[in-house]
Amino acid sequence: MVTRYENEWQFKQEKWDSLDELMGHSESEPHNEWIEEKARIKKLSWWDKLVGHHGITSDTNVRHIHPIALIGSFTAPRDLITLEMLRAANPAGEEAHHANILPYLNKYALAYKLEQPKAIAHFLSQVGHESQLRVVEEGLRFSARQMKKTYGCRYHNKVNGYNEQTDSCDFGVLRSKLWTETSHYALNAENLASYVYADRMGNGNEASRDGYRYRGRGMLQVTGKSEYQRFTNVHNQRNPSDIQDFVANPDLLVSSTEYGVESAFVFWFTKTGQGGTKLCEVAKTGSVADVTQMVNGGQNGYADRNTRFQALAALMNIN
What we know:
InterPro entries: Cell_Wall_Dynamics_Protein, Lysozyme-like_dom_sf. The protein is mostly helical.
């Protein structure tokens, strides 16, 4: 790379005369067009006229790199996440969508310090599985049987107690109104969410409708009033020039792609497990099963999560 070279704005007769033979010019056989061209070049030269003014010296060897721009090139933030990574994490995704979310992913990867390659691979593979890298809203328009299976019965040893043959619960009923008031909740997302999310996750009772108001939204769905408050607190702390109230305006997590993306980072960096274990720390060294357990509370979708992670690991040279 040439960084310092003689500038072209000072006319040096000997430099151009050295081309005479190549141009077919000699004293005995003058090349008039070449003579005129050298005269034109001399007329365009201005360096000697400005020596001593405006910082211009007689040294015609100038640097061809802007010093401030050069320093800036070393300090400019690098992209921690690339389009190739998004393709690996979400092979069925649209390129235009990936390009749209990439700036936000890099903005918050830098802000929240998601920098370690294995942690990035875990983050993208888990989000890829959960939402296909899209800002989504929880769908709760369930059929009668689906809502009973999902929310109606108690578990035993991590086994769902719903019995499809008898439409009852083998290990005890958790929410009896799904049987006694089936028509009120089936195929009605607002009624169902208000009931099944009532009196937990910071929500009020069923009548408050908090369960529906604070249903899951975002890339890694923020669910429950307390989680919307947590997101508000973390966002405002890290973005003092953009104060928001996501408790008062929960739909911002789906109407704004940027906030929907950021919500995944807040989840990732605030999620803790037993004994206060942090998800973001487990992701630096842990296995897909370890991370899935913290994200999902079990191993649902493990095969797909692992496939996405392995594609990223191959791309990013992660052992």
